[in-house]
Amino acid sequence: MIQAAIAGLVSGGVYALLGVCVVLLYRMVGVLNLAQAAIGVFGMFVVLVCYENHWPLGLAVASGLLTSTALGGLLGGVMAHWFSEASLQVRSSVTIAFLIGILTVGLWIFGSDPRPVPNLVGTGSLWVGGLVIPHLALVILGTALLLAGGISLLLQRTLLGVWLRALAERPTAAELLGVPAQALTVGVWAVAGAISCLAILLIAPSRSPEFPVLSLLVLPGMAAALLGLFKSFPLTILGGLGIGLIEGLASSLPAVAPYRQALWFLVMLAALLWIQRKEVWDAAR
Q1: pLDDT per residue as tens digits for the range 209-265
Q2: What DSSP letter does each residue of 221-260 carry, written as one string?
Q3: Angle between the 36-52 and 218-227 helix axes, to the nearest 10 degrees?
Q4: What is the CATH number assigned to the segment(s) 2-284?
Q5: Residue 195: C-alpha distances to residues 103, 121, 191, 192, 227 (Å)
């Protein structure tokens, strides 16, 4: 059972990466982006098309990352130009419309048939105390930790981080003080798009490589972000890894295994109930 749980680290690491993107956008620009995974999936399919046409793998991956970066920046530009003063509910609803648009265009361009996905890391494993840890899991975990640490350092130690924090807390005042609000907003969205593409590329070989299926990976990413209360990158990473471990453990239980990729819903429900319970306690005190 322990080995089965460890096998879930690959999925958990990807949920953590997507969760970090969700938290980044929520903290910086106040949006819950339901199109986050779909942006990455579109870039991944660009990679597959390029690779099928005999492009070098590195060039194909670069093309996909640039595509997702551009899509993320496009959505960020729309948000910054037309919805900068809108409420969280309105801006999040716009991402739903964008999700539907990406799914429609993606299925029209790439079709609905699964495609073979190249493995960027390989199939090697590391033996630790009799347990087998896939190299892919270590790469994803390392990427998530470096990303979270890098973002935290950026926000705390650089002028750009000061601008981003000002944009998140007082956007109108920050813009009046000369902070390039629209450019920063587009940049944050673009970076999140590139990260999503990388995450989808890493997990796609172990999942059904279909556009709608992979686009729904934003949901366990949202569950991971919820466990981080939409503000803590370390807790989001732990939440994503925890969901992955639960999925892996469930795969060893025949009664639960067919539903293991929906267990994020129970985690999200439990987190919401716990948060609500805490608020009731606080009100009672």
Answers
A1: 788 888 888 989 999 998 888 888 889 988 888 888 888 787 777 777 776 777 777
A2: HHHHHHHTTTT-HHHHHHHHHHHHHHHHHHTT-TTTGGGG
A3: 140
A4: 1.10.3470
A5: 19, 16, 6, 5, 20
Residues in the chain: 285
Determine contact, residues 13/141, Cβ cutoff 8 Å.
yes
Write down the H helix ranges in the chain: 2-7, 9-29, 36-52, 57-82, 88-110, 135-157, 159-169, 171-176, 181-203, 211-215, 218-227, 233-250, 264-284
Tokens, residue 142: 């390392």
Q: At a CB cut-off of 8 Å and minimum separation 6, what does 58 contact? A: none
DSSP 3-state assignment of 119? coil
DSSP structure class, residue 145? H
Q: pTM for the whole thing?
A: 0.87
Q: What are the residue boundaries of the structural domains of the chain, listed by start?
A: 2-284
Determine the Cα angle at 270 with ends 264 and 275, to 5°. 125
User: In angstroms, what CA-CA distances link 231 with 25, 28, 79, 87, 151?
Assistant: 10, 10, 21, 18, 12
Reading the block at residue 81, the tokens are 């130009």
pLDDT digits (tens, 9 = 90+) for 114-173: 778 888 776 666 676 666 777 777 888 888 888 888 888 887 888 877 777 777 777 666
